[in-house]
Design a protein that fits this description.
Elements: E1 13-14, E2 25-26, H1 33-42, H2 46-52, H3 58-75, H4 82-88
Antiparallel strand pairs: 1-2
Length: 90
């Protein structure tokens, strides 16, 4: 599947070899996308994220979520058994 970039992630999420080993980070910071997503799985209240990382914006958090969605969309789905295949077409 061709990779496209959502307008929320374009320019906000970057990957550069010299920053955290090329992990996706929020542009202009060393805050990795996976850290934001992990924090959101524990506590959906973004207020705590803003307290811990005052340089973050709401748009940055939305870009992290959009980035994760793009990864999931790019995964594709493949049935693992005949039962899964039949259920997928229901």
């Amino acid at each position: 599947m061709m990779k496209t970039h959502n307008e929320n992630t374009t320019g906000r999420i970057v990957q550069m070899p010299g920053i955290l080993g090329g992990k996706p980070v929020i542009k202009g910071t060393r805050i990795p996308v996976d850290l934001i997503l992990e924090r959101l799985t524990v506590d959906l209240d973004v207020k705590t994220l803003f307290e811990d990382y005052p340089e973050l914006t709401e748009a940055d958090i939305k870009a992290c979520i959009a980035f994760a969605k793009e990864l999931v969309d790019d995964e594709g789905s493949f049935p693992t058994s005949d039962t899964d295949s039949k259920q997928a077409h229901v």
